[in-house]
Amino acid sequence: VEEAEQGPASLRNFVEQRPWYTNLRQEFDSKHPFLTNNDDTFTNEYMLKEVNEIRISASSVKFVPKETPLTSYNVMDCPKDPPEGYPTQFSLVDILQNWNPDNVFFHKENQSIYQGICIFDYFTPNHYEYALNYQRSEVPFVLKNHPQVMPTVIRWATPNYLKQLLRDTKQRTEYSKTNHFMFWRLRGGKYNNPNNGWKPPTENIRLSYTEWVAHANNSAAKTVESNNNQDHWYFRLNGCNDIY
Coil, helix or strand for 191? Predict the structure, then answer.
């Protein structure tokens, strides 16, 4: 919905019918004039600067692809068309041994990770063309720094913007008593019987964005060891819901 004014006409109308959203965007854009500048080169330059600063503030760790004989291509400099066997798949055991899911922090300056999906940069020559080739081949890839996506990144990273956007509307939120959000699904039979002693590992509840942020900030202040066994909330948004 945040980028709906650039999408299909039906979706643009969906957004434009909400005056409060128009006012919110006008107020935000007035503080970031490069978003409404008619000079694309000027706008893109400033957006890239803002987005890179957001990336740096989000993590001081630089992730680099792990060198492995299984991958015949450089994920940061992929060929024009998907190579044979793309994307490379790795053993789940190796992935978990390399990055323990119970430890969300890395202490190395350059942390190597298993990465088999190509990363394209919109502003790197030919990368966008290559990304379209991969799209037509129906294989996964990452496209970063797209000029229609960066404004949303900047808005969502601005303090209080999401609070104004989502207001007090309750959103679906998964609740777990630990940092593990195990997948489960009721299939009927004995598992639907409340007397068999089985309980789902997570619970679906509803929280507002403000409520969820309060939980998130409280968790961020704890150590990894203590936080893993504390309550966790997985805030979920559905952009197709009539909530904006």
Answer: helix
- The closest alpha carbon to 87, from 75, 98, 77, 97, belongs to 75
Residue position matching structure tokens 């992730």? 63
Q: How many helices (H) and strands (E) does the chain have?
A: 9, 7
CA 64 to chain centre: 19
CB 137 within 8 A of CB 151: no
Tokens of 224: 């990894």
Q: What is the pLDDT of residues 43-73, one digit of tens each?
A: 899 999 999 999 888 776 677 888 888 888 9
Distances (CA, A) of 239 to 82, 89, 140, 192, 232: 31, 31, 22, 31, 23
Q: Can you tell me the distance from the alpha carbon of 216 to that of 227, in angstroms, rounded to the nearest whole number?
A: 11
The full DSSP string for 69-89 is TT--S-TTS--SSPPTTPSP-
Q: What is the pLDDT of residues 87-137, one digit of tens each?
A: 999 999 999 988 888 887 766 666 788 999 999 999 999 999 999 999 999
- Residues 203, 181: Cα–Cα separation, whole Å: 10
pTM value surpassing 0.90: no
Q: Tell me the two tokens of residue 104.
A: 């969300």
Cβ-in-10-Å burial (0-12, 13-18, 19+) of 84 comes to exposed
Contact of 165 with 24, CB cutoff 8 Å: yes
pLDDT digits (tens, 9 = 90+) for 14-50: 455 578 888 998 899 888 888 777 788 888 999 999 9
Residue 207 bridge partners (DSSP): 171
